[in-house]
């Protein structure tokens, strides 16, 4: 058993990230809406993966690794931030990036995150959406090891218990900012995918003894499947922190009604949400995660789902670089 503060971490993110009101968006939906700006974590455009990488890079350095290897979709924000962290710490970076069925194509392969990955010096292994990413990663790791390299593998989205610890810090920041700004938050909403952000955030709230409910809007699977994924990771994260995993009971909530036809495939509601935030708050969301997360929050506000929760905080997890890959749908 280890305690949270003894787990090695490198500092990469600009933090605390701001927690700001969204007055013009609030007036549209009859709620006090706030945003936690984790799109401003600072690493090559920022986003939620920067916090996870603080623990994952520390582990790679402790293992004397010379190469970071990770996997994701072709416009993965996680891949971009991993490439940037590798550059910052003098490590090589291998990105195994899958094509994503149903996404726009003209800029998808070259612009947005793909452009930045190349600028950051990562080497890219492009896979079709039929190739097996896990098997490819395993073979690449073996090949690098056989060539005398010391690769460190980071799972999809940086979502393992170690990576999730990054979001324990975000939870602590939110708790502090609520106090400093003398505001009330009744509900937190975020986009949830590989689950580490929601799991880490809940672990941090549990650690702080704060019971604000957290709603994950799914970007790739049903609510039930997502609850299972987040719950398992949350229990493992609490265990890693030396806390009782049963504290997770009843805390994981996810809604799978807003991702449309699949991961990365645009919905009309996402496009509306991205436009509304841009044109009312000067806030740029992304098409794959935060746009869909915000579309869920907006729809649930309109339907009165939060009628007993006037003060809602949206966690902006970054990804605005992705809009350049999706310009044809905007
Ligand atoms: C911008 C953005 N928001 C949200 C998420 C989802 O976070 P998680 O995978 O930890 O659930 C991601 C993951 O890649 C992301 O890039």
From TrEMBL:
Tree of life domain: Bacteria
Active-site positions on this chain: 76 (nucleophile)
Keyword terms, alphabetized: Lyase, Pyridoxal phosphate
Span of domain Tryptophan synthase beta chain-like PALP: 15-318
Signal peptide as annotated in the record: none
Main EC class the enzyme belongs to: lyase
NCBIfam families linked to this entry: ACC_deam_rel, PRK03910.1-4
GO molecular function, one term: L-cysteate sulfo-lyase activity
Protein name per Swiss-Prot or TrEMBL: D-cysteine desulfhydrase/L-cysteate sulfo-lyase
Family matches, as InterPro entries: ACCD_DCysDesulf (IPR027278), D-Cys_desShydrase (IPR005966), TrpB-like_PALP (IPR001926), TrpB-like_PALP_sf (IPR036052)
Pfam families noted in UniProt: PALP (PF00291)
Family, as annotated: Belongs to the ACC deaminase/D-cysteine desulfhydrase family.
Residues modified to N6-(pyridoxal phosphate)lysine: 49
Cofactors that this protein relies on: pyridoxal 5'-phosphate
UniProt KW Lyase keyword: yes
E.C. code: 4.4.1.15, 4.4.1.25
């Amino acid at each position: 058993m280890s305690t949270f503060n003894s787990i090695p971490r490198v500092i990469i993110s600009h933090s605390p990230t701001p927690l700001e009101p969204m007055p013009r968006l609030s007036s549209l939906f009859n709620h006090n809406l706030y945003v936690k700006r984790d799109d401003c974590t600072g690493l090559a455009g920022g986003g939620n993966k920067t916090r996870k990488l603080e623990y994952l890079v520390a582990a790679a350095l402790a293992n004397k690794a010379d190469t970071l290897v990770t996997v994701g979709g072709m416009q993965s924000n996680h891949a971009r931030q991993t490439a940037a962290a590798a550059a910052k710490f003098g490590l090589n970076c291998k990105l195994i990036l899958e094509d994503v069925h149903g996404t726009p194509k003209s800029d998808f392969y070259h612009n947005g995150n793909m452009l930045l990955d190349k600028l950051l010096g990562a080497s890219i292994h492009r896979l079709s959406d039929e190739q097996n990413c896990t098997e490819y990663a395993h073979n690449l790791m073996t090949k690098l090891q056989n060539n005398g390299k010391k690769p460190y593998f980071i799972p999809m989205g940086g979502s393992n218990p170690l990576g999730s610890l990054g979001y324990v810090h975000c939870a602590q920041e939110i708790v502090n900012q609520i106090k400093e700004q003398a505001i009330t938050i009744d509900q937190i909403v975020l986009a949830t995918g590989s689950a580490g952000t929601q799991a880490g955030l809940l672990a941090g709230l549990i650690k702080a003894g704060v019971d604000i409910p957290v709603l994950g809007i799914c970007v790739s699977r049903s609510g039930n499947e997502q609850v299972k994924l987040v719950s398992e990771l949350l229990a493992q994260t609490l265990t890693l922190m030396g806390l009782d995993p049963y504290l997770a009971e009843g805390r994981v909530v996810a809604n799978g009604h807003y991702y449309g036809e699949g991961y990365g495939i645009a919905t009309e509601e996402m496009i509306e949400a991205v436009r509304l935030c841009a044109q009312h708050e000067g806030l740029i969301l992304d098409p794959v995660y935060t746009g869909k997360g915000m579309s869920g929050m907006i729809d649930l506000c309109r339907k009165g789902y939060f009628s007993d929760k006037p003060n809602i905080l949206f966690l902006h997890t970054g990804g605005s670089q992705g809009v350049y890959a999706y310009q044809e749908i905007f």
